[in-house]
């Protein structure tokens, strides 16, 4: 491809995978690739920057595009403190000194993908859980998102821990009987929950694999297991609570703002959870408009990087590219993203 006009790159980097999309300045998407996680919080700044650098080179090769990068917008997991994004922006700017580089938390990419850049709130529930708000005057709000330390509950890993907690107590008699115990044993092919606990304790089983129990939670919920029903209900109320705080902090409650739900847990087509969330969010703000994100968040990253935003025609194209994205290297398995 003989183009010489500087190209535009959008990056959505999570703990387990990174999507990178390449486009022309007028918004024509050229290629998309997927690689391993690029969270600076998990890898360190330089290692995370190297993952992104390798993927940008890969997407240029995929598109057979030799033109320089003019704009790069990277939205990454783990940039939760005020100083994190400016620090990592400087790291990426050293890699692309001629480009206009922007760095932000990955939750903002989901918001931009769902609202097209307008004011709104996004709640993301994948491996972890987070929420952001963007007010009409540009004011921003977010949570610390440091896990239990900062009051967070939910996300694939958090839900998996909750499933194991209930399963362990069901097995030793401290808690009520629940299908979660049997489903957890079946999932890990063991005879007792204690085997799972000890495998985690000794490091034989990676704690990240607890996120796999999300499917077992919803299976038990479908079977009307009382414990699973209560956990799923709590998740819906947590989503509503996060939304309420973000709407209030950005002065958007009652304004008809969009509320974007993103992440595998919230966009997996789980009917009862969807219904509970719909009802809970209506109680929070009946004027709000609920959007379940149907494109990858990298669409929001690319929209930010493009001078005129992402054309509507490209949204479906990015969705198709995401389904067939080549991996450099394969993303981590067994993690809800």
The geometry reads as: globular
- Radius of gyration, whole Å: 20 Å
Work out the strand percent.
15-25%
What ranges have pLDDT less than 50 throughout 5 or more consecutive residues?
A: 331-337
Estimated structural class: alpha/beta
- SSE topology string: EEEHHEHEHEEEHHHHHEHEHHE
Largest sheet: 6 strands, mixed
Which strand order do you get reading across the main beta sheet?
5-4-1-2-3-11
Instruction: Count the E strands.
Output: 11
Determine the mean pLDDT.
93
Protein architecture, described:
With 337 residues, this protein is α/β, with parallel strands linked by helices. The protein has helices spanning 40-43, 45-63, 84-95, 106-115, 155-172, 179-188, 193-202, 213-222, 226-249, 271-284, 298-305, 312-323; strands at residues 7-13, 17-23, 29-36, 69-76, 100-105, 120-125, 129-134, 140-142, 258-262, 289-292, 326-327. A six-stranded mixed β-sheet has the order 5-4-1-2-3-11, with helices on both faces. Strands 8-7-6-9-10 form a five-stranded mixed β-sheet, sandwiched between helices. The protein is globular.
């Amino acid at each position: 491809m003989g183009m010489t006009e500087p190209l535009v790159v959008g990056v959505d980097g999570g703990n387990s995978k990174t999507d990178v999309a390449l486009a022309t300045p007028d918004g024509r998407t050229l290629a998309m690739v997927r690689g391993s996680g690029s969270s600076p919080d998990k890898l360190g700044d330089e290692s995370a920057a190297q993952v992104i650098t390798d993927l940008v080179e890969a997407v240029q090769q995929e598109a057979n595009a030799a033109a320089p990068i003019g704009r790069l917008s990277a939205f990454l997991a783990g940039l939760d403190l005020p100083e994190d994004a400016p620090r990592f922006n400087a790291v990426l700017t050293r890699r692309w000194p001629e480009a206009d580089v922007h760095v932000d938390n990955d939750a903002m990419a989901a918001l931009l993908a769902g609202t097209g850049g307008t004011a709104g709130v996004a709640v993301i529930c994948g491996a972890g859980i987070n929420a952001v708000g963007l007010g009409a005057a540009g004011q921003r709000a977010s949570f610390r998102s440091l896990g239990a330390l900062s009051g967070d509950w939910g996300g694939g890993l958090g839900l998996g821990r909750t499933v194991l907690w209930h399963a362990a107590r069901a097995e030793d008699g401290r808690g009520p009987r629940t299908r979660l115990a049997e489903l957890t044993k079946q999932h890990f092919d063991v005879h007792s929950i204690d085997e799972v606990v000890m495998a985690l304790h000794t490091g034989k089983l990676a704690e990240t694999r607890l996120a796999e129990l999300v499917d077992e939670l919803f299976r038990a919920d479908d079977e009307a297991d009382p414990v699973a029903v209560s956990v799923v209900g709590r998740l819906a109320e947590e989503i509503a609570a996060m939304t309420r705080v973000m709407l209030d902090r950005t002065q958007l409650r009652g304004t008809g703002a969009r509320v974007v739900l993103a992440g595998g847990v919230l966009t997996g087509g789980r009917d009862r959870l969807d219904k509970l969330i719909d009802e809970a969010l209506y109680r929070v703000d009946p004027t709000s408009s609920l959007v379940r994100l149907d494109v990858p968040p990298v669409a929001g990253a690319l929209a930010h990087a493009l001078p005129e935003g992402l054309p509507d025609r490209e949204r479906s194209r990015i969705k198709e590219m995401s389904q067939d994205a080549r991996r450099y290297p394969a993303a981590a398995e067994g993690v809800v993203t």
